Amino acid sequence: MGMYYSWPKLGLFDLTVLQSILIYLLPDKVLAKMGRGTSFEIISIKYNDCSVGILKWYDNKPVNIASNFITSGNLVKIKRWDKKTKQYVEIERLEIISLYNKSIGGVDKIDQLISTYRTFIKSKKSTLRLITHAFDMVVANCWLQYLEDANLLKVQKNKTLDLLYFSLQLANEPLNNASPSTSGLNLSRSSDSKVSRQKLNRTDNHIPAVDRLKNPTKCKNPECSRKHRTHTFCEKCDLHLCLSSDRNCFKESLKFL
């Protein structure tokens, strides 16, 4: 925390969690023996009527937090689940912890949800990674909104979807609503090798013609081998189709109509 960037007199208040600290605070083992809800704090000497407080609060694990406008504050009784006794116990929570959870805790929650089921891609392009991260963020926020709506509608906890099944349902929704014209396509072959049913005109006058290209074009009949190339195409549909003594893809393709 820099005095030039966060100063209460300037209306800039700072509250942050510290991953590691170099100053002396009570060891974690000592706080663990004293029990959950135990805290220890130190306050720096005032400089320009401003001081910094650093606290360590022990819940399931120690939390180091620092602020330039509040220290421990008022204590609040909260309930926490105890694995040993298998029941809820009351512990004391500092006001600074409550303020952090209220204002900044949501950011940590979103990061945790995104990291739980992050979309994995092999590409190292920053644009693709940003896009997938944005999708993951949208899914996490939608799931939190879904939980709020379920709570308002008084849906039972065992009937609400967790994040994994919620994400799967979102992914399957477009597939379930896919149009019949595209649901039966073979995805293992490229789209340019298939006869488009929309492109095939349902009227008559399908006339074969021969192009003047230097190299033959791949046949667009999905039942035709990928090795077959032809100069013959349908003038009406503008699709290249085999028409020879061995194969007649031109006739077979009209079966789609």
Automatic annotation (TrEMBL):
Compositional bias annotation for Basic and acidic residues: 191-207
Domain PiggyBac transposable element-derived protein: 44-143
Superkingdom per UniProt: Eukaryota
Residues covered by region (Disordered): 178-207
Alphabetized InterPro entries for the sequence: PGBD (IPR029526)
Pfam families, sorted: DDE_Tnp_1_7 (PF13843)
Bias type Polar residues, positions: 178-190
Signal peptide: none
Name of the molecule in the record: PiggyBac transposable element-derived protein domain-containing protein
Organism: Aphis craccivora
Highest classification ranks of the organism: Eukaryota, Metazoa, Ecdysozoa, Arthropoda, Hexapoda
